[in-house]
Amino acid sequence: MDEEFRRVAGIVFGAPLTRRTHRELLYCCAGGLAGVLGFGVVVVLLAAGLTISASVLGTVVGLLLITLTLRLSRRLGSLHRRVSNRLLGQHVEAPQRFQPGTGVLGRLDRRLRDRAAWRGIWYSLAKLPVAFVQFYALVLIVCGLIDLSYPVVWVLFRHGNPAPLRMLQPLPFGGSPSVSSWLGSYFAALVGAVCVVAGTWLARGINAGDLALVRNLLGPTSMAERVSELERTRTLAVEDSAQALRRVERDLHDGAQMRLAALAMNLGMAREKLDDQDDATVRELIDAAHRNAVDALADLRDLARGIHPPVLDSGLASALDSLAASSAIPASVTADIGQRPAPAIETIAYFCAAELIANATKHSYANQITIKISTERAGLLRLEVSDDGIGGADAALGSKQTQGSGLAGLVQRVSTVDGRADVSSPPGGPTVVTVVLPMKA
Questions:
Q1: Other CB atoms closer than 10 Å to residue 390's CB: what's the count?
Q2: CA–CA gap between residue 281 and residue 332 (Å, rounded)
Q3: Which of 38-42, 312-316, 368-372, 431-435 has the lowest mean pLDDT?
Q4: What is the pLDDT of residue 402?
Q5: How far from each other are the two terminal CA atoms of the chain, in whole angstroms?
Q6: Nearest Cα to 256, choosing from 294, 219, 218?
Q7: Structure pTM?
Q8: DSSP secondary structure string, 99-150?
Q9: Is the separation of the CB atoms in 148 and 193 below 8 Å?
Q10: Half-sphere exposure of 77 (CA within 13 A, CB side)
């Protein structure tokens, strides 16, 4: 029992001396300042936007202020996540990247329905009382440290001086007692030690609550939003599968099936001509049948390669090397793949790289394509395809293309396995497309 008591006492009273406490106090300072500033900016902009939009003439200006507030709330949420991840040693993932709609009204509608941004506003509102408690914990520790120094201060500076010392005690009770003797300074030091220990554990407690708010409001989507996102990606997966089946059916009907039908007709005519002993005509028909058979085999081989490229059997890195070798623009591949991803993920990554190379070949006027593929600790596969072309690529413009093709089709295909695609393509280039996929489908 005594040993257990000493162990608990060591944990309680030794907490102020640990490295974790130093990080907790830094987070109280940095997170508290960011919370107060974020609260002020969000409240002012949101209140102004709601007030102005209530009038008929100010609707446009008010909506612009609200969308600015929502966009800013995402930036503030990213700041809070980085501070908590850096100082508290926790890893809170970012919510899904905002996907703008097409056109002015589409972008406005998407921004107003951005749930992650609204949750960021709720965090900014809830952060204010949390910041006050964090500041109070800091004040408690600072006052405690000053009280702890009173015995030394009394010996060095107050010896022979009858003027009392005022104790610093930011507690809601007990007032502010004075120290009028050297022995009384030890009582002040004892109160200071209690304040330091209490402030340390108060900082840990409020930071734990703040971290819970960060996870729930600034992290990935909540359960209801997650279900909605899964339903959306499931619909996209079904539509993508239906499009793939229709494409296979069309390729079979227009390509291999027609060639095999021509092959059958030519062989039938050759069989009829055999009876007439016209060797030249029979040879021409047989040559035509042979060409149709070769072309049909090539079509079937291309169709099978479109479903699952055989080169993937050797691994994704080898498949990308083969893809780069066949590119019309010189391409290089840098691969750092540890654990091999699931076959479905490899297939999606391969076709994403193929689509991006094809886009660069058609539109970028680039001289070089760079492909980087790597695995991350968090169980993610990262594919980055960049070129030194003219830039100007935009996934939002994919709706002008055939559905399921181009960058829009790439984003749709990636989202079916809970991945994401980021496009950076300023006018003048370079274009960098980053695809992040889970290791398992």
A1: 16
A2: 51
A3: 312-316
A4: 34
A5: 52
A6: 294
A7: 0.52
A8: ---SHHHHHHHHHHT-HHHHHHHHHHHHHHHHHHHHHHHHHHHHHHHHHHTH
A9: yes
A10: 31
